[in-house]
Write a structure and sequence with these properties.
The chain is of the alpha+beta class. It contains seven helices and 17 strands. The chain has helices at residues 22-29, 35-43, 85-91, 121-126, 152-163, 238-245, 291-304; strands spanning 2-4, 9-12, 48-49, 65-68, 72-74, 93-96, 100-105, 133-134, 143-149, 167-176, 183-187, 190-194, 200-204, 212-221, 224-231, 270-277, 283-286.
Length: 312
């Protein structure tokens, strides 16, 4: 059931919230409000920080006064999580301590529900521990390493590490064609657009946000290259858009590759396999390539092996 807060709120930022982004602060204050509505409130100037307009990514300081307008809020409710998903997520925990949890996210599972989805990974996570919060994103069709913070201080610390690029992220991908060089650095700004069908896409555009990806060829296969991609920035669909931009779209990408995927590939061939936290202490996490992707590589390798000549 929804309710409307009829009065403008003026909320002081507590010391333990210092460093939190404005959008995340508002979501915490307005339980049940969609993230899109939060951005709209900020963009239209209905939310103010110390009397001035602010961007959603603004880092708050203890003592800041945040003006929050009257909005309809809804009591949070648990989405219907399929039987077995909670246990699958539990089995995919690779590391856990007091501050963070590292998960190997399966492909096809969105981190958040909404936009036509009945549930997301966080709904299953909430049934394990409601305090765990993801601190970065993975596209729905991408598998691999996802970091969750176990408490607010850890959220702030880990988000700061991502913002300051103290996190190294690498992905494994299968891309079309043979790379012209063993290492290609793509420095091309990315912009969100809506195509003629209303589908959201990411394109390279001068007025876009800065984005840098480094493609390293690990293996050349018939019609494809198996690559590792390191990203220096974390933009939506960054690897997929950059791969298409250089003429080597990711195999199985229904949004950025019009060609049929290789035989046996039923998902996007993109997996977050390596994550290094340089701060506050140097730690490395890894997730092996999923078996279904390894099998696709094996089929391509079999094609590259010449058959034995027929006997005379």
């Amino acid at each position: 059931m929804s309710r409307t807060d009829r009065k403008v709120q003026h909320v002081k930022v507590a010391p333990d919230r210092a460093g939190q982004r404005l959008d995340n602060f508002l979501i915490g204050q307005l339980g049940g409000v969609p993230r899109g509505l939060v951005y709209r409130l900020v963009r239209t100037g209905q939310v103010r920080v110390n009397g001035s307009r602010a961007k959603p990514m603004k880092k708050l300081v203890a003592g800041d006064e945040v003006r929050i307008p009257p909005v309809a809020t809804q009591a949070p409710e648990h989405r219907q999580v399929p039987d077995g998903l909670v246990e699958e997520v539990r089995q995919r925990i690779l590391y856990r301590d007091h501050d963070l949890v590292v998960l190997d996210k399966p492909a096809g599972l969105a981190v958040h529900g909404g936009s036509g989805l009945n549930y997301g990974l966080v709904d299953a996570v909430n049934l394990i521990d409601a305090n765990w919060k993801p601190v970065h994103r993975l596209d729905r069709p991408t598998s691999g390493l996802l970091l969750l913070a176990c408490h607010h201080q850890a959220v702030v610390r880990l988000q700061r590490a991502f913002a300051e690029r103290a996190v190294e992220k690498r992905y494994l991908a299968l891309v079309r064609g043979e790379l012209a060089e063993p290492r290609i650095r793509v420095d091309a700004p990315l912009k969100k657009i809506r195509d003629g069908s209303g589908q959201r896409r990411i394109i390279v555009a001068e007025e876009g946000q800065p984005a840098v990806s480094i493609f390293r060829c690990l293996e050349t296969l018939p019609g494809y290259s198996f690559v590792e991609v390191e990203i220096e920035t974390g933009r939506t669909h960054q690897i997929r858009a950059h791969a298409r931009h250089i003429g080597h779209p990711v195999a199985g990408d229904e949004l950025y590759d019009e060609n049929m995927p290789p035989v046996g590939l039923k998902r996007l061939f993109l997996h977050a396999h390596y994550l290094r936290l340089r701060s506050p202490d140097d730690r490395v996490f890894s997730a092996p390539l999923p078996a279904e992707l390894g099998q696709v590589l094996d089929r391509l390798r079999d094609r590259s092996v010449p058959s034995d000549p027929a006997p005379d």
